[in-house]
Amino acid sequence: RVFITNTNLQVIEWLQQTYGGTIYQARRFGRRKCYQWRIMYMQAADFLKLMLPYLQIKRLEAEIAISYQEFASNLPHASRGHSRTAEETDALEAAYQILQEVKQ
Q1: pLDDT at position 78, please?
Q2: How far is it, in rounded angstroms, from Cα 5 to Cα 26?
Q3: How far is CA 62 from CA 31, 36, 93, 101, in A?
């Protein structure tokens, strides 16, 4: 997932028009209104790929998130009657834990 929050609705609307996604009004009681743009899954990975050349602080986090999403999207979808193998679940969990460690 990618979330971008800003108090300027025009910026958030431009992101949505340019890259898709959804806009939410963030709840911040007693403060100025702010808006949040959200994208998920491969849409988020595609956006992060476009942003990689400009990222400095969050570059490693973005690279891991892209790899995670590409790996997850290539797995068969778990659904009713079709579950992921233990190896697939373990690999996804390991990648998720790495991403969480990098974010701290």
Answers
A1: 60
A2: 8
A3: 30, 19, 17, 13
pLDDT the model gives residue 85: 80
Q: Which pair of structure tokens corresponds to residue 75?
A: 């797995």
How close are the terminal C-alpha atoms of the chain, in Å?
17
What's the chain's length in residues?
Answer: 104
> Which tokens go with 87?
């190896």
| Confidence (pTM) | 0.78
Q: Cα angle vertex 60, ends 94, 52, to 5°?
A: 125
Nearest one of 51, 72, 74 to 61, comparing CA atoms: 51
The answer for residues whose C-beta is within 8 angstroms of residue 59's C-beta and 6 or more apart is 52
